[in-house]
Amino acid sequence: MTRRELAHWARQPVQVVVGLVFPVMLLLVFGYLIGGGRGVSGPYVDFLVPGMLALTMAFGLEGTMLAVTQDLNKGVVDRFRSMPMVSGTVLVGRAVADMLQSAAGLVVLIGVGYAMGWRPGGGVGFLAALGLLLLFRFAMLWVGIHLAMVAGRPELVQAVQILVWPVGFLSNAFAVPTSMPGWLGAVVEWNPLSATATAVRELWGAGAGGSSWAAEHAGVLAVGWPVVLVGLFLPLAVGRFGRLRG
To answer: Which residue of 45, 61, 182, 199 could cross-link 222, Cys pair, CB 3.0 to 4.6 Å?
Structure first.
């Protein structure tokens, strides 16, 4: 199933390239055109790059969501039903392919960050931060797969994808919560994306900002939120797929 999904990359190179370039464009826009970062202490690029990496792990789910709905509507799943395979293997193959593309996206964005002057801390902390980013992506991926199966049709994926935008922009990817109104800052601090971004910044030696419980325990939340999301949405997605086999 994973080889099948990777073979699609060769036939749709534009879609893969766009998925890698779009986060780079966002990073350059916020880093050079918009800039700012109210309340950020230290170089803004040290705050921005980890936030953009976390934001990238939340966005770009539409490719996987479209692939799932297309398989459901083109009879591909019906063909797989006749094969002796574990229920949910199609979804797992798609998830592995998405994780590989997400890892490639991280490499590209990290390279652009270096070109902009960003210098993260190295060693175990660097690898741990990458692990948190990929864990967050894995969780968001299963949320997207389940929502795609609920939507059922490719034309509805765009509407469902819009639900990801509040998660992305109601976060501390671009500014610290202390620079926001009190109620909004509280919402932002408890956002799963904010927890990952804050934990990654801490591991890479950048000031995270904030003195709330959520900010001080960002590492716990950066692991806890994805585990809860995966524990909820992975069984829902696999169970829904299994019912299609009946």
So the answer is: 199
Q: What is the dihedral of CA 182, 185, 187, 191, to 10 degrees?
A: -170
- Amino acid occupying residue 75: G
Q: What is the distance, to the nearest Å, from the Cα of residue 100 to the centroid of all Cα atoms in its chain?
A: 12
What DSSP designation does 82 have? T
Q: Which tens digits make up the pLDDT trace of 16-44?
A: 776 777 778 777 766 655 556 666 777 88
Which amino acid appears at position 162 of this protein?
I
Residue 140 near residue 232 (C-beta atoms within 8 A)? no
CB within 8 Å of 117: residues ≥ 6 apart: 43, 45
What distance in Å separates the CA atoms of residue 165 and residue 41, rounded to the nearest whole number?
26
3-state SS assignment for residue 12:
coil
Long-range residue pairs from 211-217, CB within 8 A, at least 24 positions apart, any chain: 212/177, 212/186, 214/189, 214/190, 215/177, 215/189
C-alpha angle with apex 145: 238 to 220, nearest 5 degrees? 90
Residue 59 and residue 23: Cα distance in Å, rounded?
9
Residue pair 54/133 in contact by the 8 Å Cβ criterion: yes
| Separate counts of helices (H) and strands (E) for the chain | 13, 0
What letter does residue 162 receive in the DSSP assignment?
T
Q: Enumerate residues 6+ apart whose C-beta is below 8 A from 15.
A: 63
